[in-house]
Amino acid sequence: MLKITRLPLGPLGTNAYIITEQGKALIVDPGGDFEKLKNLVSEKKVEVLAVILTHAHFDHIGAVEEVRNAYNVPVYLHKAEHNWLTDSSLNGSSFFQMGEITAAPAEYDLQPGPMELGPFTFEIRHTPGHSPGSVSLVFRNQRFTIAGDTLFQSGIGRTDLPGGDHQQLIDSINTQLLSLRNDMRIYPGHGSPTTIEAERLNNPFLQ
Q1: Is 200 helix (H, G, I), strand (E, B) or coil?
Q2: Which candidate among 22, 81, 129, 169 keeps its CA 20 to 30 Å from the CA of 147?
Q3: What pTM value is reported for the model?
Q4: Are 171 and 123 a contacting pair, CB within 8 Å?
């Protein structure tokens, strides 16, 4: 049975997610604190298949290189941000005085549409606005979506960093996320999970 575990990591408490099924795992947005992540993977006794990035801001990529090397797995990222992993001015780490955070380039592009990795079947939706290559991962059968920094509980992603665009973000949310079923659970890049219905009714940015 497919399960998702949320693990806040790094200096900004960025949500990493470990999705497990049939002894396999996907790691989404390993933002830092590799030891914590490694301990959880060991506890679950799973084989890691890949790292998937919802986008490449520094707080989502802090442990990418450690995960990649420890488990010998590829990294998937939207092509609009492929050079962000290697460039601290693009991924934002050079602006926040937290030391430059970089990683080797992603091995694979995330293409909008259906995707299969091992036992996992999901859909990639391109949801730019917070950043040009932001994506959301829709697990339709399990009724949850990992939305990165696109949509939060009662909030939306910031758009004041390079490549951010407020109107584009609102359009992405309206067309790519609010089109999902009301009971779709949203797992955001920061903070607690929510649902499409709750955000449709209560999110002050979407009224």
Answers
A1: helix
A2: 22
A3: 0.97
A4: no
| Closest of 118, 93, 100 to residue 27, by C-alpha | 118
Overall average pLDDT of the 186-198 stretch: 98
Give the Cα separation of 145 and 136 in Å (integer).
7
- Would you give the distance in Å from CA 172 to the centre of its chain? 15
148 Rama sector, left if φ>0, alpha if ψ -120 to 50, beta otherwise:
left
**Tens digit of each residue's pLDDT (9 = 90 or more) over 74-94:** 999 999 999 999 998 899 888
CB atoms within 10 A of CB 58: 27
Q: Each residue of 145-174: pLDDT tens digit?
A: 999 999 999 999 999 988 999 999 999 999
Per-residue tokens: 114: 């259906």
Between CA 177 and CA 157 the distance in angstroms is 14
